[in-house]
Amino acid sequence: MALRDVAIVGLHATEQARRLPHRTALDLAQEAVFGAIADAGLRPADVDGVAADWPGPGGTVDESASWSRSLGRSLNWVGEGMLDTAGARGVMKAAAAIAAGLCDVAVVGGGLSGRFGGRGPVGVAVAEVEFVDVWGAYSIPLFALVAQGYIRRFGTTPEQLATVAATIRNNGSSNPEAMMYGKGPYTVDDILASPLVATPFHLLDVCITGEGGGAVVLTSLERARDLPHQPVAVLGAGMEFAGNHGMPPLDYRTVGRLGAAAAQRAFGAAGVTARDADVLALYDPNSFELLRQLEVIGLCGEGEGGAFVDDGHIALDGRYPTNPEGGCLSYSWNGTQHMTLKVAEAVRQIRGTAVHQVPGAEVAVVANAGSGTRHYEVVVLGKA
Amino acid sequence: MTRSTPTPSELSVEFWSAAAKHRLLVPYCGGCGIRYFPPERLCPGCGEPGWHYVESTGTGRVVAHTVVHRALSPDFATPFVLATVEVDGEWTMLTNIVDCDPDQVAVGLPVRVRFLDCEGGALPCFAPESSAGSPPDRTGQRP
Ligand SMILES: [Zn+2]
């Protein structure tokens, strides 16, 4: 069995909000996991592989095997640790485990509450790495260092970055599931008029912060044929690391093209190129990082991202609708499971059940992380 | 507002104790002849553990910078400049550019280390080479 013989068959997104004081992390994670299993038309005891957040109480915190008792069975495979329980990375590792015969049905996901919510208006993560926080660095300024070098080299305008932010935020404005539903719509001028966070980023250029959960279920394509939903195959995948997460220092010279090699491997395995994609679910911690990814996945040349978005390609009615649900800028950023929600959105698009449905979507690209974090994971999903 | 130095690791304890005395040290590998940062047990150039700290010239150039207007902690007065600085023409570190108008900072700006005394020691920041101030060998003497 190869990666492409594995399919995503179930998904669940919990409510996403700036704060969910009535929910615990475990409650969100369990809703996500059991919801995704039910969506797949499976029973909890069918799941023998788990890469899912276990926040406690009960079990052992961060140990995926803690799910064994809730699922009512022993497990044949687990994944855990940073981001192995979420998004493109979680999905490709679970798919690899199924392809290798280590397990039959795997669930990837989880949820968070009480940690990031209420911390402030924007999504931030501080790398627990020495020589970072003593200088006042956190995720937004770290990405900003890379962005500044890019802008200096290619002359990208503030309006072009703001176009990215406005486009994606406006997708979320009209998505009832989005944290920022009903806010906006935003013009380029609105983005530029919001206060600066770290040059070149304005408040509306960077992702929101909040709480919520999500999960997806994978199994072999063969088994997927008997399940209720249109199977979505994991056509190809790749990951790339330029050192450890948050390792200082950062600048465009060293991490500017991070992900290009991973994307090339993913598309190579999938037998398609970025130009075959019908919809994109790219990581959008800020406007620049999304622009950069349009280039590294191969939709346009290095430095051409600004002109590419000027041409309207990433809009809902463009050639490559990007983050139709509103992405991390508007739909959800909740710690890590917003990455799983990007997979869920891509699967919904291919099933034909998305809120902002791209007509006839068959191929989707889902990516996590980016230059400011020194790691990148990308999966190519397709109608099976 | 109080900034502080980190709890050092066994790799960085010498770096931070020197910084407290206003001396900028950097790992140097005698095996392959490179300076690198941050410290690692095995040299990223050759994979050998036989490195030691040497004194940096404390001079460099801004490679990348951002003006931070929102700090995560009230210990930071905004706006402040976060920058990647190439030091000794060879190794790079994350730092702050201080003692100047943030708008004055540009890529290529020559800078010199300027220690910021704080709780637990001192933080090596950098200031424009042209700005008034004493070189690190004199600021090295603590009052
Ligand atoms: Zn060496």
Automatic annotation (TrEMBL), chain A:
Superkingdom, taxonomy of origin: Bacteria
Annotated SUPFAM superfamilies: Thiolase-like
Gene3D superfamilies the record matches: 3.40.47.10
Gene Ontology MF terms: acyltransferase activity, transferring groups other than amino-acyl groups
Annotated Thiolase C-terminal domain residues: 260-383
Protein name: Thiolase C-terminal domain-containing protein
UniProtKB/TrEMBL annotation, chain B:
Organism: Parafrankia soli
SUPFAM superfamilies cross-referenced by the UniProt entry: Nucleic acid-binding proteins
Classification via Pfam families: OB_ChsH2_C, zf-ChsH2
Annotated ranges, domain ChsH2 rubredoxin-like zinc ribbon: 16-50
Domain ChsH2 C-terminal OB-fold span(s) in chain numbering: 53-115
Stated name of the protein: DNA-binding protein
